Amino acid sequence: MATTVVRVNHHTLTLGVVYNELLQSGESNIHTVQASEAFMLVQGQNEQTQFTRRRYRPKMAQANINLLAARMSDLDNFHELFSNDDVMRYWSTAPHKHLSQTEEYLRNMVQGKWNGTRDFVIEYSHSSSAPKSVIGKLGLWDGHEIGFMLNRGFWGQGLMKEAMSTFLQQVWGDEGAQEDLQDIVADTDPRNSACIGLLKSFGFEEIGYREKTGETHLGWCDSVDLMLTRPVTRKESHQCKPR
Questions:
Q1: Predicted TM-score of the model (pTM)
Q2: Beta carbons within 8 Å of 31's beta carbon, 6+ residues apart
């Protein structure tokens, strides 16, 4: 599982789409993401957690993306992610040399508070009838800071863009919005221009720059901090305020 990284504490992604447009109109003209096809999936584990998931398909790519709770059975796919040099270039740790390192990371995710509600694995198949496989992860690993990875073999296909659109609609959409989540933050390496540019295309704004925030396999790294504030939904915009 080689991938585009985004822990967003030093990663690379492939996003796009102005999220406010997606919420207000149900469609993004910029990236032709159609938000009219929502579906419910009742599976996913924490180990046995049930929740609603949505999927949106680009008009051209017709990709099949699901956001699911992580399971220990995802270990091999996760190790393909975490052992890849390209995927891990701007990550906070060096690529994993041993399967046990990835197993510990995955176990913490599976047992974590946000697994399946704000933190997910990305499942993909190239058609509705094709086999599905886990190709990445995306979510708020601590309930607030966004991070994601995409298998290196799937870069450049707009899949992270689609997954991000689905994720934001799921946590901030009109139905079942997580109202206690008022903003999402990102900690990015300033050398990771692709990551920063893609986050900004979703409405993230720079809020600060910090020097030598962490030492990784690349040496000391600075941080560009970004934030996305929860938009007003259509339901809220139609609510009347008392005089």
A1: 0.69
A2: 16, 17, 58, 158, 161
